[in-house]
Amino acid sequence: MYSDIELGDLTLLERDLLLNQCGPKEGIGSWVDAPDLIYGECCDRHDLRYLVGGVRDQPHGDASERYMADLEMYECMQMRAAKKGWWIRWWYLMIARTYFNLVVSWGQDNYIFRTKEELKALEIDDLLREEQERQARTGERRTSAFEKCMKDCGRW
């Protein structure tokens, strides 16, 4: 990956606008509210890798960088599961494997391919603009965590 954008570079508001933890943003299954469990940050890193994307003309074919992003998410999930007690660890590992299989099978439409030049010049503002364009195109409006909190707390 050629972009320097990392999860820690995003403000809380930017994370809220761009990332949705462990659930599909659009397409098949977007109506499912997948549980984040202990994997929220792993999924956010994966979302960011998909948003930043990769270069189509890689030596191992179009899917190699996407698969690496999927594999990094799975490894992160395995590390989180390993910290749990032995009696529940198997369940967390099973969930991690299920998430990994679903992302590998159904995530291809959400991965963005860019040119090397686009990837080197990519900024967080570009990601925010692309997300706004995507929402306008699909008619979707994501509810921010702030809005959810205000609604759940009865203040809205």
Could you explain the architecture of this structure?
Helix content is 57%, strand content 3%. With 156 residues, the chain is mostly helical. It has one domain. A two-stranded parallel ribbon has the order 1-2. It is globular, with a radius of gyration of 16 Å.
Number of folding domains?
1
Q: Mind telling me the C-alpha Rg?
A: 16 Å
* Overall 3D form: globular
Per DSSP, the total helix count is: 7
Largest sheet: spatial strand order: 1-2
Estimate the helix proportion, in percent: 55-70%
Query: Proportion of β residues?
Result: under 5%
> Which structural class do the helices and strands define?
mainly alpha
The H/E string reads: HHEHHEHHH
Mean pLDDT: 79
Number of strands: 2
Largest sheet: 2 strands, parallel
Ends apart, CA distance between termini:
42 Å
Please identify the oligomeric state: single chain
Low-confidence stretches: none
Concise description?
The protein is an all-alpha fold and 156 residues long. It is built from seven helices and two strands; from the N terminus they run ααβααβααα. The chain has one domain (7-152).
